[in-house]
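Q: My labmate handed me this sequence with no annotations at all. I'd like to see what the chain might look like in three dimensions before we decide whether it's worth expressing. Could you predict it?
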Amino acid sequence: MGWWDPQLTIQWRVPNVVSPIYIILWWFSMRHAIFFLLMLLSVSLGVSGQGIGVEGRKTEYATISKIVIEGNKVTRRSVVLREITIHEGEQILIDSISVLTEQNKLRLFNMQLFNEVDQHIERNGNDITWFIAVKERWYIIPSVILQLADRNFNTWWVNQNHDLRRVSGGLTITNKNFRGNLESLAITAQAGYTQKLGIAYMRPYVNNGQTRGLGFSAGYAQSRQTYYATDSDKLVFAGTYSGPVVLRQAEAGVSYLYRPAYASKHIFQLNYKEYKVSDTILKLNPDYYANNSRSAKFVELFYRFEYNRVDNWNYSLKGFKLVAQAVARQGFEGIKFQSYANVEAGMFNSLGSRWYTAAIFRGKLMYPMNQPYYFRGGLGTQTDYVRGYEYHVTDGYSYGLIRLDLKRELFNNTYSLPVKYFTAIPIRIYPKIFADAGYIDNPAPGNSFLSNRLLYSIGAGVDVVTLYDVKIRIEFARNHLGQNGLYLHFNSE
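A: Here is what I predict for the chain of 493 residues:
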């Protein structure tokens, strides 16, 4: 409900009957319980069989005497060594070299620092020299901002008649590898529908063990138009494109990162935020903030946990990932106390012959209830929507959704260019079919016709993934209302 993409909230209550959301939750939890049991069993079997050769073949080991990293003109050697699974002086199975090579290639690509990663070894008896050659990306990236005021491209194109006055334009200058330490520094200036200034900095490693990081962010934004209510599952806007400012937002915060292992990450943030709306918004919706207030001032404690066991964090085809967030807010004006939690879990599998499946679950709970309009939330915003319902926004207090995909890799090629930092342009294309289901619980639905009922859709589409992790999704979906639509998105699922 603003430029800064604050976390949308939802409240929790115990329903009198078993609703479809709990059926979805139960199905997903049982599926993953079986998955974890099988994973533990496989680990147990792997340990018990350690050292047993195939068909009696003698197990052969070698020692990694040296790791040579080439092409890292900016990135520090210690940053690369932090990500890979091999270490100098370590003994490895000769038969595991191909597996380790592929594993470390994926890990280095997931750093989003390199366009190419090549590896080879040189063996001298039982000693191995492991060579890693990388081609670095262009780290200082001036990104042109073309941001829509609306939730997605289709809403802007159809409902708002692709009005260019609803577009924000600006520039973000980002250094994704500041000083070669994987630090990120971004400065943003934006004009148009929403005017914005912001700065963000994060250094992921501040200790010798490379497990702890620190960062900060600050920003200010204003807009002459914003939405103030939801009517029949549609957002209602107020203000004019050239009139007075109706919404102002300012915030600042500090971050602490703890990454004890490759796959897991903990992020803590302490933020202070101030939001303010005009009398026009307050007259149209006195419940926009609490107590008929024009302002909301609060401290926010934010925690995020990431577990990453996928092949590619940006566009996953194999593995499992989990993202869980918890937020507690204490208000001084316009909001009292609020807490909420949300979770995203994804399981990605390869069926062979370039066929893949994906199952993604998202859910959110909030406590206590009776929050002002700005701090509520529901389905239809950001990535939390059932595909096929892009034109709808549904308020509520708890929800869950699941997305199921079956896709095939149709095209995967990399084109070489004689241009620095653009030496290789990868293009991957994945046609797919999909099915979604979701449910949102709202004890006071008003004139909403999507609350408190199972939402579902089926469809087909194509995903395109290319340079610098750009993703394009073109999807045709049919929802339970019988509505058909062709939708365009510029992010992953």
